[in-house]
Write a structure and sequence with these properties.
Layout (H helix, E strand, L loop, with lengths): L1 H25 L2 H13 L4 H5 L5 H22 L2 H17 L6 H11 L6 H29 L5 H20 L6
Helix pairs in contact: 1-2, 1-4, 4-5, 5-7, 6-7
């Protein structure tokens, strides 16, 4: 079926993007290859690849990784096209799934971890894109979403968040009883 083929291709492209990302931060082709291969074959990704509702996961990951790879390459080459590609990838990641809101924090973490100098105006633009998305989400997209989904209160979501994190860590380390 078409959506299944699309999911598989997105998963493969995400694994390739993960390899490129690891090559930029680890500098070791073997580690990058095996980490990407583990991601590609790990059974925890089954739902994201096999269910149509999981299509947003590999799509978001692909755009997040393309954003990070483009941004790191921009820092190395100072090519403005790479910077624009990073911003566009970030916007596409946000439109794919809300978990992409973490990208500006990941960029700051990259600068902090690898002691890379940064220009604040280049990073602020990522926050501007994020703020634009949040405003869009709170205005236009909320109007459409209310008719489809009833939103739970934040306090009701917090226990589920910690239960989900615990379960995902268990599945990552011990991928048994996947159904």
């Amino acid at each position: 079926q078409g959506y299944h083929l699309t999911s598989i291709l997105l998963h493969i492209l995400s694994a390739i993007s993960l390899y490129l990302f690891f090559r930029l931060i680890v500098y070791d082709a073997n580690i990058s290859f095996f980490a990407s291969l583990l991601f590609l074959a790990h059974p925890i990704n089954t739902e994201a690849v096999s269910y149509i509702s999981g299509l947003s996961d590999p799509l978001s990951l692909l755009f997040i990784l393309l954003c990070l790879v483009s941004y790191i390459k921009y820092l190395q080459a100072q090519n403005i096209i790479l910077y624009i590609l990073a911003l566009l990838s970030f916007a596409m990641a946000l439109l794919s799934k809300e978990n992409a809101m973490i990208v500006p924090a990941l960029i700051l973490l990259y600068h902090y971890t690898f002691r890379k100098n940064f220009k604040i105006n280049k990073i602020i633009i990522f926050f501007v894109v994020l703020l634009s998305y949040i405003l869009l989400r709170l205005t236009v997209l909320t109007h459409f979403a209310r008719s489809m989904v009833s939103f739970a209160d934040l306090l009701q979501r917090i226990p589920g968040f910690f239960a989900s994190i615990t379960e995902y860590l268990r599945l990552l380390l011990l991928p048994f009883d996947l159904q």
